Amino acid sequence: MSARPQKDRPWVMRTYAGHSTAEASNALYRTNLAKGQTGLSVAFDLPTQTGYDPDSPLARGEVGKVGVPVPHLGEMRKLFKDIPLVEMNTSMTINATAMWLLAMYQVAAEEQNPDLSPEEVAAQLAGTTQNDIIKEYLSRGTYVFPPEHSLRLIADMIAYTVHQIPKWNPINICSYHLQEAGATPTQELAYALCTAIAVLDQVKSSGQVDEADFEKVVGRISFFVNAGVRFVEETCKMRAFNQLWDEITRERYGVEDPKMRRFRYGVQVNSLGLTEAQPENNVQRIVLEMLGVTLSKNARARAVQLPAWNEALGLPRPWDQQWSLRLQQVLAFESDLLEYDDIFDGSHVIEAKVNELVEGAKAEIDRVQAMGGAIAAVDSGYMKQELVSAHAARRGRIEAGDEVIVGVNKFETTEPSPLTADLDGAIMAADPEAEKSALASVEAWKEQRDETEVADALAKLAEDAKSGVNLMTATLAAARAGATTGEWAGTLREVFGEFRAPTGVSGAVGVAEAGAELTAVRDAVKKTGEELAGHSGGRLRLLVGKPGLDGHSNGAEQVAVRARDAGFEVIYQGIRLTPEQIVAAAVAEDVHCVGLSILSGSHMELVPSVLDGLKEAGMGDVPVIVGGIIPESDGRRLVELGVAAVYTPKDYGLTEIMGGIVQVIRKANGLD
């Protein structure tokens, strides 16, 4: 009997995790590492990602919800207590404040290794900061500064890490969030690669890296990719990424070393396709998506993190995360996948699909570059508009039944599931004390630090921001002095200003032709508008609002586009609004209904604030509806508080939702 072939080394296995407090997250990390996880992937809460301290009014309800709060160096120490950072490979999902979080990570590592110089510690650190700000303007919404200043921060970080932290990936170009926002495989390829071109061009023009070192810059660029359930197409997409990246780095940047041209990527498989209905089906979806990025050896992911089966319901528990880790381990250690060369080499089917994707992506890259590149295509709203339109087309296919989602629009009959028999027990509840704990932490931290040292460090940061020198030195000094996340970001906000990205809604293409259902809703919208306006041809006005720091706007955008198609006058002002701003817009526009979209879990704090504000403004009779990832028990409580309707991911029929909104408006105005 012949010996089995030697296996390749498996990819790095991670679980995207972080919640409530640094102590709770640290315990989770150490538990996951003990279970065989081989790298860390840190989820930060929204205030940390958008540069606010827990005591900021904008942070209310968001602290510790979708990740761990790290407002200062003391919390970074707690986050990695008893985890040797010089031996770890850590991925940090952080963008606008990436420079600040990397600085605190480095200082925490220095403190763990007092016998080594800061330079020696930095040389040993390995990991990745996501740091792709362009996709934040398009899909995820945790941007802070205008594009040109954000690119400067990225270039400064890249130059610093290439010289000081050579094993660090200073940026992770993210096509993941583009797919979540509706991108087709062609758009995902094109827009991610246009982002990479914008970043590399910025580093080159900054003059901080000489020609001899530029190959190293290219070699440290990594990508973070999404994998959908169409795993043959996803496999081809990854092979296309490899081919295009090799071509761009060789022809545009003259990189000769094939190792430096290698397409290096990590993956989080698709969360957009996870369903609240029959959530047990998500397990096989996740497995198929994992195969799309592991089957082809020449295009295999370097790191994989999988969502949990119940993420469409709420925050996964440790057991759910363990299940996802075990899916990876079974594939890597029980199957024979890692024993063979690339199993697709020579397949004419794969080759033809790869060529189709490459040609389509090249055409779209040329289109964006002709506009002036990725930043120009963000400023003009072109890329955002294309993504909103692509997402609307996908939603249309699902509602028409042309795209089958098992358990959602086909095969809907189901046995009672033991997994969801106790819905509230099937997810982890956010710690209600997390915000209080973070507030106390910041207060205690400020009491023990040297305020003069902090003020001097922040003044130097502002001075360097104005002068154009690399900001990493001043940022490290601010971290060592004890500045907070909000102070670092606030200092740069004063110099750089803030930014509001285009929403992409106004020019997006919605439903091409109205079927019977949409026509009926349009008639109801028109009739109700006329009745309320005394037959003067008035239109129903719907305000779509995104309160808090949640920047995942895909759902809100699709609601806005379909509402416009249904005949509503839609007021949508984008992301990150306070309850007060939403109430002010409702008053100014004299709306008939307020629709709130919240996916970060902050609904129980923010929705009551909007309800109270409307009452105080004399608009308490205007109905409020809420959509998001809202546990059943929270949904019941919101209705008790006065919310007219609650929609969750299981409510995928947008036209049906529009009909529901008309009924809510009629009921509120006594027209039933």
Automatic annotation (TrEMBL):
Keywords: Cobalamin, Cobalt, Isomerase, Metal-binding
Official protein name in the record: Protein meaA
Molecular-function GO term, any one: cobalamin binding
Cofactor(s) it depends on: adenosylcob(III)alamin
Family named by the database record: Belongs to the methylmalonyl-CoA mutase family.
Keyword flag S-adenosyl-L-methionine: no
NCBIfam families: acid_CoA_mut_C, acid_CoA_mut_N
Assembly and binders: Heterodimer of an alpha and a beta chain.
Gene source species: Nocardioides immobilis
The organism's place on the tree of life at top rank: Bacteria
The keyword Cytoplasm is assigned to this record: no
B12-binding domain ranges (all copies): 539-668
